[in-house]
Amino acid sequence: MNGPRRAAEFTVLALLALATLCAMGFIFVYAFFSPGGMPNALLGISLGLCLIFIASALLVVGKRLVPNDELEDDYPTEHPEKQAEVVEQLRTAGSLITRKRMLLGAGSIAGCALGAAALTPVLSLGPFWDTAALDRTPWKRGVRLVDETGHPLAAADILRETFYTAFPEGADPEDIGSPIVVLHLNAADLRMPPDRSGWTPRGIVAYSKICTHAGCAVALFRKPTFPTVEPQEALVCPCHYSTFDPFTGGTVTFGPAGRPLPQLPLQIDGAGHLRAAGNFSARVGPSWWNVREEPT
Amino acid sequence: MSRIRLQSATRRAGFVLAALVALSTGPLGASAQAQPPSGIVRPDTEPAKPTLELGSELFAANCSSCHGIAGKGITKARPGAGDVSGLGPSLRGVGAQAADFYLRTGLMPLDNPHHEPSNDRVLFSDKEIRSLVLYVASLGKGPGIPAPTPQRGNMSDGAQLFTSDCAGCHQEDARGGYVTGARVPPLQGYTNTEIAEAVRIGPYLMPRFTASQISNAQLDSIIKYVQSQNHPYNRGGWGIGNIGPIPEGLVTWLIAAPLLLISCLVVGRRLRR
Predict the structure, then answer these.
(1) Considering only CA atoms, which of A193, A198, A203, A202 is closest in space to residue A262?
(2) Which of A10, A67, A94, B224 has its CA 20 to 30 A from that of A157?
(3) Taking CB atoms and an 8 Å limit, are A164 and B213 in contact across chains?
(4) What's the CATH fold of domain A132-276?
């Protein structure tokens, strides 16, 4: 009886060692390759094998090392002496595991290795304290506005009752800070915050095209044909219908967005082209929980 | 307010305006007897062909309570047809393009200026629409009716342009949707000309798109794509009106999957017997 149990113990130890190795392999692969060239198949295989080895070890423990003899008679519910007998029987069977500490140790090592592997990707979550990257966009004073084909936008070409999408000249259009929506509004109707005077030459306004709720493109411009009886001009996000008022600095008038659309100050250069007069009024991009106010 | 009352009231107000116009511009002869119950006021005898004169008569009787005498527009609400106060934009300079679009799609005439225009039944005959278009075009210099040529368009360009410029509101499959404060109409059943007109005018809350934003050639491609969506190719079989992935998923999980499950159970029970 002792021989097979020892062999089973050895198998369990070997399986747990293999599981530990696989988990360490996962950590090694994650650390060794750059995020761009990460071999996802290797990551999956190492983690999968680790789990399979642990499961096999548990199977062997369950089948071979845990007493699974069946009682011939019913459990003696009314005889405390006989109950004690059964318990003693179980204890002797359990104590047949000769290397209990070793097995427990191997199990905890394998478990810790698996936990470490699962937590490794946490290291890839961006910088914890340095949030400067959130404020960085391709826009700064003097950058020209271009359309999707790269042609600069002239102020005279920005017409009423329609909207334009623009990008910073020479920058990556897929950068989350790049796309803006440009509107020509009636300058007399603008009610901008006092610190944004001069941001809207000739009534031309520009806002980030990324919704502050979930980061969709603010692709809807609502434009009344007869403003007296129709809903007023608004920028609307098609994902969850966040509605922004372009006359008041992009404030939210409806929907789940928690903060205004970031506004880009504009200026018109000598050649009549539109240029940025600075960076956005606030951070570009979707918000996360608790972001209900402008960062100060 | 009941529809009948509104219509009879519209008619009454129309007569008054027609009479006013007749007084101010000479005898145009819009007489007021035996009108059909459509809500539209017509002269007793219409000329055989569309004429500017017929257009002006129809305009005075059916449009001027909101758009004002000679299309000047009414910017401050004032008593109009029935209990509804008249209020509407000026039509000077909108041209044949806008008149043709709004009348042929049935968006106008509108029974209440505070309502969102919808694609109701077209109330004017073709001859009457042509006459009204002639009249509105004569009010001021404006764009004419476009003549798109979608057969010259390119389907993939059209799909791409539609995605970037139109799908935000009208959805990728041109089935329409919502914008806060208004419905976005589905684009099935419009003629090529009507689609071209809508892009250039920007009816109701839609922005207008000038030729510098969407060229006529690009417009041809867009129209070709929109028309192709009248009968989209349903790869999966039953298209359930192409209303989008979420309702399609609902149908799959709540109807198709239980049906499959039930049929499996039925077949299994039979086999067991």
Answers:
(1) A193
(2) B224
(3) yes
(4) Rieske Iron-sulfur Protein (2.102.10)
